[in-house]
Design goal:
There is one protein chain. The protein has a domain of 178 residues: Aldolase class I (TIM Barrel, Alpha-Beta Barrel), CATH 3.20.20. It is of the alpha/beta class. The radius of gyration is 19 Å and the shape is globular.
């Protein structure tokens, strides 16, 4: 889910979402001027989940156990589209989900460190996207719409170790764009000292097809090889990988923390 549908302060070339200027649509992507109430958002999310399941109960092919489990969702990824830290009541939203027994996974581009320090309630797990190894590549890959976005991201990297919840640095890697220099990524990651690092492949889907080519999509082997080199640089273990999703999980731990 997202509290900031279609609003973001970056225009990453690999993002699947529609961006201002795609097709014939244009709007101020950083001008979030409507704030829905956190409780209303949570209730709306639960209702939307039930609406999605409509019809499965009568379907004889549906797995009955999975259907019953899906009626009472327990996990929420605050990630779907847009930059969630643009929503100024984000801490309240996380608290509202926690009050109902949800685990929360917050994914941010890290360019609003002040919003993260003012959360009030930490998510169950915090993901920060790191999609470039230097400022020049960052500008080319992520196309920030705010000044000093690279410096702000680096400030967030320094802040990350102060969080009590597990933290993740996520790398979306694009062939011929940012899939190189693991040693430079390593220097940035060391600032954050994250619980996990998650290198993953760009997927040629959605509106990213207007900005990138199919050949920009790395194979899992490329991601695996990059992850092995990165793990060596930062002294992390390769815990798991999912070839079907072209993603690898690295950590200083011997095994992942079980959150729920």
């Amino acid at each position: 889910m997202t509290p900031t549908l279609l609003y973001c302060n970056m225009r990453c070339r690999f993002c699947w979402r529609i961006q201002s200027g795609d097709m014939t649509f244009k709007w101020n992507e950083t001008g979030l001027n409507r704030l829905d109430d956190p409780e209303e958002i949570v209730e709306g999310c639960i209702k939307a989940q039930l609406d999605i399941l409509s019809g499965y109960k009568a379907n004889p092919k549906a797995d009955r156990k999975k259907y019953r489990e899906a009626l009472t969702p327990k996990h929420v990824a605050i990630s779907l589209t847009g930059e969630p830290t643009l929503y100024s009541r984000l801490g309240e939203l996380i608290a509202s989900f926690h009050k109902r027994g949800f685990t929360t996974f917050l994914v941010s581009n890290g360019t609003l460190p002040e919003a993260l320090t003012q959360l009030g309630t930490e998510p169950t797990q915090l993901y920060i996207s790191l999609c470039a190894y230097d400022k020049k590549t960052f500008a080319k890959t992520c196309r920030p719409q705010i000044p000093k976005a690279w410096e702000r991201l680096n400030e967030t990297l320094f802040l990350l170790s102060s969080f009590k919840c597990p933290t993740v640095i996520r790398l979306t890697l694009v062939r011929h764009l940012n899939l190189s220099h693991p040693e430079q990524y390593a220097k940035l990651i060391e600032k954050a000292d994250p619980t996990y690092v998650e290198p993953k492949a760009y997927m040629h889907v959605g509106y990213s097809q207007l900005r990138l080519n199919y050949k920009n999509m790395p194979s899992h082997l490329e991601i695996h090889d990059f992850a092995v080199k990165l793990a060596k640089e930062i002294g992390y273990n390769l815990l798991k990988e999912a070839p079907e999703s072209r993603v690898v999980l690295l950590s200083g731990l011997e095994k992942p923390i079980k959150l729920a």
